[in-house]
Specification:
- This protein is α/β, with parallel strands linked by helices and 382 residues long.
- The protein has 2 domains: 105 residues, Beta-Lactamase, CATH 3.30.450.370; 248 residues, P-loop containing nucleotide triphosphate hydrolases (Rossmann fold, 3-Layer(aba) Sandwich), CATH 3.40.50.300.
- It has 12 helices and 17 strands.
- A hairpin with a 2-residue loop joins strand 1 and strand 2.
- Helix 7 runs parallel beside helix 8, helix 8 crosses helix 9 and helix 9 packs across helix 10.
- The longest helix is centred in the last third of the chain and has 13 residues.
- The protein is globular.
């Protein structure tokens, strides 16, 4: 197939041609279609509006039907889907485009279907590239490498589009290739199995089967996937995004020898991310006190990422979770914080003996990044 598999599938009207150009443009991060004549996209310079992309609603819906053919959503025709929402990932055996689609059908829009396409970079962004872009400081970058090599359990938090999944992929560069990683996602976004360096990766995605009336026939939820991963001899379990009952299964995994597990959460601060994870664990029936204790024992670090301005994302916090309780909440040890006024990164604390011991258990002796830099070392040992 030509043009990443798109041109041969679509009727090449002008609307389809223009949409394909957007899909293939590496600078385009997302495409949001509110209707056939209300289409927006985001690139490195901001949000753009395109009017009159398609001649009419019929051509727009026909394009969506053809788009479904190169995804794993399980539908081939929008009007036959019998679903309020449709979401899934692009199939790598049908297109080189990486990303996911979300469709709100007219069952809930009461008008034109709404299509949202989220694209992923064609190549993973490294932690060093993030450093070059000013997303974090040298000591933070060095510490995060130690954290992954030392198999700390990490939650990565931030708003939509902040770069949580990008950070998770960047951290995967420091995973021992001999490790077996099982990823659990509702939509395939991590794509760790596409790495030539990490070969022992199993990617699991949730599954729903509906009958012709739209009733649920069979389902494998994210919670189910994490439980399955526990039986698959995984060394590390990575959950693409935790937002429900799967949190309990993940916490159990972290407490049962699956060191080096990672997940992402939607949150506006590291503190909020920790509280949200506690609330998700409570959905399994745990009391708040027990849930807080379990989360603090299971996870070592919370990394907060924020988009501070167009095209600029920064790591605003790196926080260590401590098991000590203060005033009904688990105490946090703030390690690094981004100073908005000076646009700089400030180290506000040092890792606790508990965290250093966790690193040492996995053959990583903690080295203070600032001390290391003061010694005039020419590079970071790999």
């Amino acid at each position: 197939m030509s043009n990443n598999g798109l041109d041969d599938l679509f009727n090449m009207d002008k609307g389809s041609q223009r949409m394909n150009l957007l899909l293939n443009d590496p600078a385009v991060q997302d495409i949001r279609c509110n209707s056939h004549d209300r289409i927006y996209y985001t690139d490195s310079t901001g949000s753009k509006f395109i009017e009159n992309m398609f001649p009419g609603p019929a051509q727009y819906e026909a394009y969506i039907d053809q788009l479904l053919l190169i995804t794993d959503v399980g539908y081939t025709h929008l009007k036959e889907a019998k679903a309020a929402v449709i979401e899934g990932s692009f199939r790598q055996d049908r297109t080189a485009i990486k990303g996911s689609i979300f469709i709100a059908t007219n069952e809930i829009t009461r008008g034109a279907p709404v299509l949202v396409i989220r694209k992923q970079p064609t190549s993973a962004i490294s932690l060093d590239q993030m450093l070059e872009q000013g997303m974090l400081s040298v000591p933070m970058r060095m510490f995060l490498e130690q954290a992954v090599r030392g198999r700390l359990n990490i939650m990565i938090a931030g708003g939509s589009g902040a770069g949580k999944t990008t950070m998770a992929r960047a951290l995967s560069a420091f995973v021992d290739p001999s490790c077996r990683i099982v990823t659990c996602e509702e939509i395939d976004e991590l794509n760790l199995d596409s790495s030539l360096r990490l070969t022992n990766v199993v990617a699991l995605t949730s599954y729903r089967e509906l009958d012709e009336r739209g009733a649920l026939v069979r389902e494998e939820t994210l919670e189910d996937l994490v439980r399955h991963a526990l039986r698959m001899r995984a060394d590390r379990i990575w959950v693409g995004e935790t937002r429900g009952r799967e949190a309990y299964a993940l916490v159990k995994a972290c407490l049962s020898g699956h060191d080096g597990s990672i997940t992402t959460l939607h949150a506006n601060s590291a503190s909020q991310a920790i509280k949200q994870l506690v609330s998700y664990v409570m959905e399994s029936g745990m009391t708040e006190e027990v849930a807080r204790d379990q989360v603090s024992q299971a996870f070592h670090l919370a990394i907060q990422i924020q988009q501070v301005k167009l095209g600029r994302r920064v790591v605003t916090e790196i926080v260590e979770l401590e098991s000590v309780r203060e005033g009904g909440e688990q105490r946090r040890n703030d390690l690094w914080r981004y100073d908005f006024a000076s646009d700089s990164y400030v180290q506000v604390g040092s890792p606790s003996p508990r965290l250093k011991a966790a690193l040492e258990r996995n053959n990583v002796n903690y080295m203070d990044p600032n001390h290391f830099m003061q010694q005039g070392a020419g590079g970071w040992a790999r």
